[in-house]
Design a protein that fits this description.
By secondary structure, the protein is mainly alpha-helical. Helices cover 38% and strands 0% of the residues. The protein has a domain of 66 residues: Eukaryotic RPB6 RNA polymerase subunit (Alpha-Beta Complex). The longest helix is centred in the first third of the chain and has 16 residues.
């Protein structure tokens, strides 16, 4: 098999610096489990990524997008424009944190520690689970 050279790839990705970035990014993706698009033929991962670029089995634009996305620290989020949602009149708006009416607050139940423990005991299963080790199958302690 003929070796892949920069000349095989540079007509697909003209900037050599960009070619190195894309090939390295693709090689990392292959190492992390991304499926390869051609036969490996005993080649190492960087050579496979260069061969994919040379044979155009993975579009360079897709690799560019993946590279840019992997480098980005701040991802833009489309937020709705201010005028798109109707503004509620302050009289109809619900209570706001720190400004609500204290007389409408609900009463919070106070539990003692004993009441809490009794409530938690009623939630525990009565039979031991097989996943915890109480079953007779394939657990760590059964060998």
């Amino acid at each position: 098999m003929a070796r892949v050279t920069v000349e095989d790839c540079v007509d697909k990705v003209p900037n050599r610096f960009e070619l190195v970035l894309l090939a390295a990014h693709r090689a990392r993706a292959i190492s992390n489990g991304s499926p390869i698009t051609l036969e490996r033929e005993n080649d190492k991962t960087p050579v496979v990524s260069l061969r994919e670029i040379a044979e155009q089995t993975v579009p360079a634009e897709d690799m560019k997008e993946g590279l840019i996305h992997s480098i980005q620290k701040n991802v833009e989020v489309d937020e709705p424009e201010e005028g798109s949602a109707p503004v509620l009149i302050s009289e109809r708006r619900g209570p706001m944190l720190g400004r609500d009416d204290q007389t409408t607050d609900t009463v919070v139940d106070v539990l003692t520690e004993e009441q809490l423990l009794r409530g938690m005991e009623s939630l525990t299963p009565t039979e031991p689970s097989a996943a915890i080790g109480g079953g007779s199958g394939g657990g760590r302690g059964s060998r």
